[in-house]
Amino acid sequence: MSALLEIRDLAVHFPRPRRWREPPAVVRAVDGVDLDLRRGESLGLVGESGSGKSTIARTLVGLQRATAGSIRLDGSELTGLDARGWFPFRRRVQMVFQDPYGSLDPRQTVLSILTEPMEIHALRKPRERRLHALELLEAVGLNPHYANRYPHEFSGGQRQRIAIARALTVHPELVICDEPVSALDVSVQAQVLNLLRELQERYDIAYLFISHDLAVVRSLCQRVSVLYLGRVVESAPRDEIFEAPRHPYTQALIAAVPDPTRAAAHPPVLLEGEPPSPTRPPPGCRFHPRCPARALVPDDRCAREEPPLRTDGAARWTCHLEPGSAPEA
Ligand code: SF4
């Protein structure tokens, strides 16, 4: 699989909305992120709310401007493009949003929702657009006879299937899924995840899959990157992340997932408190105010020095602790 998306040192900063008596401040929502995604691959992006996951997604589809750094799609640089320059990449990078109720226009029929992106990108002749829309409805498990219905006539799971079909109408190479199943019932979640898997194989799509639900990420993604306060703290193949997480934050996130077998073997690493404000990230390691392993590092280096990048095969993480000396999850 060749590299499709390369993100280097991406920063997205914006002014904090002014509140009564608060001085102006800059929100460092994303602050030096590197990510790689290969064709046809699924990369999970996890972290607590406020970690920068959704800001990265919005930046990748041009809804938010990068402050610094580089985003390359198939070798082409996206940062710094104006709306016109970005237009061809809008077709290649599509997004599926969390809310299947808010993301579909209630005044449009399903057929109109599915043909509109093809019209915008001048793909196919009008009759072919209709046929392609009907094919995609079938591909996402909906009866093509429903094409003239409106979004309110469908359940949440069916609406998310329509949103997925809409993303696929323009043959994207990358689909960004921002919490696509978190608003759905558990049984419907499994069906939509199966559908995403089938479509990936059929159309060779890469997914950047954003979720706070690690079980969902584990079921769909081949690799996982963990974000904390605007930075990636660990990236590794799925099984390594879930079976032998290296960074104390990843260990704490995984320990919080209910798993009676693992919890019996290893007591969970406790994670206390809330992430600090992205307007004032802590010095040194950003995780140090909450890190249960900080005391294992001499001279309080965690509070003073940026942790080094460590590598082991395909795994990367940032921590002052020597490999193997962190408490097990
Ligand atoms: Fe914890 Fe220190 Fe490692 Fe940061 S660098 S994760 S504070 S041990």
**Which percent band covers the strand fraction?**
15-25%
Give me the count of strands. Answer: 12
Described by strand count, sense and barrel closure, the largest sheet is: 8 strands, mixed
Which residue ranges are poorly predicted, with pLDDT under 50 across at least 5 consecutive positions? none
The rounded Rg comes to: 21 Å
**Shape, per Cα inertia axes:** globular
N-to-C CA distance? 32 Å
- Distinct helical segment count: 11
Give helix % range: 25-40%
- State mean pLDDT (0 to 100 scale): 91
What ligands are attached or bound here?
A: iron/sulfur cluster
Instruction: Sketch the topology as an H/E string, one letter per element.
Output: EEEHEEHEHHHEHEHEEHHHHEE
As laid out across the biggest beta sheet, the strand order is 6-7-8-3-9-10-12-11
Category from helices, strands and their pairing: alpha/beta
Describe the model.
There is one protein chain. The protein is an alpha/beta fold and about 325 residues long. It has a domain at about 245-320. The chain contains 11 helices and 12 strands. The protein has helices at about 55-60, 85-90, 110-120, 125-140, 155-170, 185-205, 215-220, 240-245, 250-255, 260-265, 300-305; strands at about 5-15, 25-40, 40-45, 70-75, 75, 95, 175-180, 205-210, 225-230, 230-235, 310, 315-320. It has an 8-stranded mixed β-sheet, sandwiched between helices. Strands 2-1-4-5 form a 4-stranded antiparallel β-sheet, with helices on one face. β4 (about 70-75) and β5 form a beta hairpin. α3 crosses α4, α3 (about 110-120) runs parallel beside α5 and α5 packs parallel to α6 (about 185-205). The model has no long low-confidence stretch (mean pLDDT about 90). It binds iron/sulfur cluster. Iron/sulfur cluster binds near residues 285, 302, 319 and 320.
